[in-house]
Design brief:
The protein has 210 residues and is α/β, with parallel strands linked by helices. The protein has nine helices and eight strands. It folds into two domains: 135 residues, HAD superfamily/HAD-like (Rossmann fold), CATH 3.40.50.1000; 62 residues, Putative phosphatase, domain 2 (DNA polymerase, domain 1, Orthogonal Bundle). The model has no long low-confidence stretch (mean pLDDT 96).
Length: 210
């Protein structure tokens, strides 16, 4: 694909390993309600559908229903502590430098609230790579709805596009929009994309060959 292609990345589990901070924030909210902590394995299966779904699943694991105040407390805590342990995946920054230098247009399409995503991009020095950030509350749609992905592509000027993500929601959005996808095998989900990358370092060569 040419350097003018739009590359749309998922965030959690694709660009960054955010599970430790998501788990810590959720467990602090649960502890405040006198509910037991979740472990990392349980949390990973809950990631991918946005903050509201994450909190609802965390409470449901204890037979409880989460309400608006629970979500608000989680978001406040998480935004404050979003990069305590969260890191960019190995080789990802180098891959982004190479892709941007080759002329690809880069965007993020995530189900995470846009305010939290923006904070993370700023703190982890990823913001310069992504002129477009579409969060879970940026449009009326969220992945797997292809219109969420279409919004990111449109913001980049349209044309050819590739979706890179670690979740079935990412792959489904790409299928719905009729664009190629690359499954990030290092992430949290289990899915089948048009292609699979096993490390960030593989992305530039894999994308160039599409």
């Amino acid at each position: 694909m040419s350097g003018k292609t739009a590359l749309v990345f998922d965030l959690d589990g694709t660009l960054i390993d955010s599970a430790p901070d998501l788990l810590a924030a959720l467990n602090r909210v649960l502890a405040a309600r006198r509910l037991p902590a979740l472990d990392g394995k349980a949390l990973r299966s809950m990631i991918g559908d946005g903050a509201k779904a994450l909190v609802e699943r965390g409470f449901a694991a204890h037979g409880r229903q989460a309400g608006p105040a629970d979500l608000a407390d989680f978001l406040a805590d998480y935004e404050e502590n979003a990069t305590v342990e969260t890191v960019v995946y190995p080789g990802m920054t180098e891959a982004l430098i190479q892709l941007a230098g080759s002329g690809y247009r880069l965007a993020i399409c995530t189900n995470k609230p846009v305010s939290a995503a923006a904070i993370i991009l700023e703190r982890l020095a990823l913001k310069p790579f992504f002129p477009v950030l579409i969060g879970g509350d940026s449009t009326p749609f969220r992945k797997p709805d292809p219109r969420h992905l279409a919004g990111a592509v449109a913001e980049l000027g349209g044309g050819a596009a590739v979706m890179i993500g670690d979740h079935e929601n990412d792959m489904a959005a790409a299928r719905g929009l009729g664009v190629p996808s690359i499954f990030a095998a290092w992430g949290y989900g289990i899915a089948q994309g048009t292609h699979t990358a096993h490390s960030a370092a593989e992305l530039p060569t894999l994308i160039a060959g599409l």
